[in-house]
Amino acid sequence: MAAPAFVEKLQEQIGHEFAAHQQYVAIATYYDALTMPQMAALFYAQALEERDHAMMMVQYLLDADEQVVIPALDAPRMDFDDVVSPVELALAQEKRVTAQINELTRVAREASDFASDQFMQWFIKEQVEEVATMSDLLAVVTRSKDDLERIEDWVAREDSGPESDPMAPPVAGA
């Protein structure tokens, strides 16, 4: 049984993860409309990853015999000034999620909820990777904002797609 304070925060985080999913779909469609298929594919893949994070959290609550609550979501941002602003938004989002994950871990530790603390460790590692990826992408997009083909070439060369992680928590419904 998970600590009640952790359960409440995890239910909120499920909403944040689904909101990130929707935001990444919106970013992907922005790049798709610009005929930037590499950037679109990268963000469609990111969207699926965020959805899976939410479903990992759902599965954890199910396994812990806790109630699953899926919160309502605000609409994602759909309009962007240029090719840089969606990546700036994505990096800010990843930094915000990192703070949320760290807070969840703190709540689990303060409640001596060791199972929930252990569950959060994979997400901590994942957020380090996510922030690094978006930071690199922002540097490239900022540097090459007037050369869309250069951005596309970099993504095609550098983005190997999501890797399977045997340490990842199980995804509900998978």
Structural commentary:
The protein is mostly helical. Helices cover 71% and strands 0% of the residues. It contains five helices and no strands. Helix 1 (4-33) packs antiparallel against helix 3 (85-110). The longest helix is centred in the first third of the chain and has 30 residues, at 4-33.
Summarize this entry quickly.
By secondary structure, this protein is an all-alpha fold. The protein is 71% helix and 0% strand.
- How many whole angstroms does the radius of gyration measure? 17 Å
- Distance separating the two termini: 23 Å
Structural class category:
mainly alpha
Tell me the overall shape: elongated
Counting DSSP H or I runs of 4 or more residues, the number of helices is 5
Question: What's the story with the biggest beta sheet?
Answer: none
Succession of helices and strands: HHHHH
Which ranges are low-confidence, i.e. pLDDT below 50, for 5 or more consecutive residues? none
Total strands: 0
